Amino acid sequence: MGFHNKWGLSKLSFKQSLRTIPLLISILGMGIGAIAPLPSQAVSFPGSTPSGGAPPRTASGAPRRSECKVVEKADLNNDGDAETWLTPMTAIVPVTDTVQTAHTHPVFFIYMPQNTATSAQIVVEEKVGVVALDADDKPILDENGNPNIRYERKEVYVNNTLSIPSSVTDDGPRIVAYELNDLDLEPGRTYEWSFALLCGNPEPFTDSLWGEITCVQSCSTDTNISRVQDLNKSELTQAAQDYAEQELWIETLSLTAQLRNFDQKQWSELLESQGLGCLANTPFADDSGAEFTVQNDPKCFVDGNSPQF
């Protein structure tokens, strides 16, 4: 049985394999006519401070091959010099860089700067705990007498043909969502993932984003969300909050993204709670009406303003 909350929502429905996702309104069937007056409650995702060595959420856009380009600097002062550093590629994940989901088919949200890459790559590796043994094949114990566990990584998924949205290559930075319906996460297991841009070569030409994702014990492929279209705005907000209280980031982020057209504050506060508030005004890749170029770049995590987590 998959995770269910009181709204009868098991988790989000992602029906097409590997594509960029718009504001997710169509995915969850939430029409404007179902929107009720602005609720007073806000979606609040738990914030926490990661332990030392947590993987970074940003990546350098410095190209490793001259035939590719990530726009890293721009002439925002119209003085003829491209001297202003722009926001690097950033994973839209919690402050801990660790994502939990109740759906076996994960979705990765990426802030992507304007670039000329031909495709992108996601690699997923399962973290497998192995008891460390000494020379006599006896378990090595820690200071508390517990077996010392070391982690090995087993590659379970590679896709290096992810498309780069035309809005990113032609217009400017966007938030891009990649859903992986051909990847099945196993309940209760933890994985490391990495994301990088490619340019006609299987080797990534930018530093990778990376982090961890866990499919909770109750996760499943169930996509029964038939009641979503019946929720008004307040109920949708509460549903997102229910997921937040379960610390299910993908579900929380996706539902809150739906509210963005009607209540920008909800979206902004959710990102702000995880140190990503400066990305709140960035449009999604499939927001066809957005006018957002490098001139509108939020300049996050540059000039010494990287998040200190």
Could you tell me the radius of gyration in angstroms? 20 Å
**Total strand count, please?**
11
Shape descriptor reads globular
Q: How would you write the strand order of the largest sheet?
A: 5-11-10-7-8
Please summarize the sheet with the most strands. Answer: 5 strands, mixed
The overall pLDDT average reads 76
Question: Which consecutive residue ranges, at least 5 long each, have pLDDT under 50?
Answer: 1-40, 49-55, 61-67, 304-309
- What portion of residues belong to β-strands? 15-25%
- End-to-end C-alpha gap: 36 Å
| Structure classification | alpha+beta
Total tally of structural domains: 1
Number of helices: 5
Helix share of residues? 10-25%
Order of helices and strands: HEEEEEEEEHEEEHHH
3D structure, described in words:
The protein is α+β, with helices and mostly antiparallel strands and 309 residues long. The protein has one domain. The chain has 5 helices and 11 strands. It has helices at residues 25-28, 166-170, 233-245, 249-259, 264-273, and strands at residues 58-59, 73-74, 84-85, 89-91, 98-103, 107-112, 119-131, 149-162, 174-179, 190-198, 209-220. The chain has a 5-stranded mixed sheet with strand order 5-11-10-7-8. A 4-stranded antiparallel sheet has the order 1-4-6-9, with no helix packed on it. Helix 4 (249-259) runs antiparallel to helix 5 (264-273). The longest helix is centred in the last third of the chain and has 13 residues, at 233-245. The radius of gyration is 20 Å and the shape is globular. Mean pLDDT is 76; it is low at 1-40, 49-55, 61-67 and 304-309.
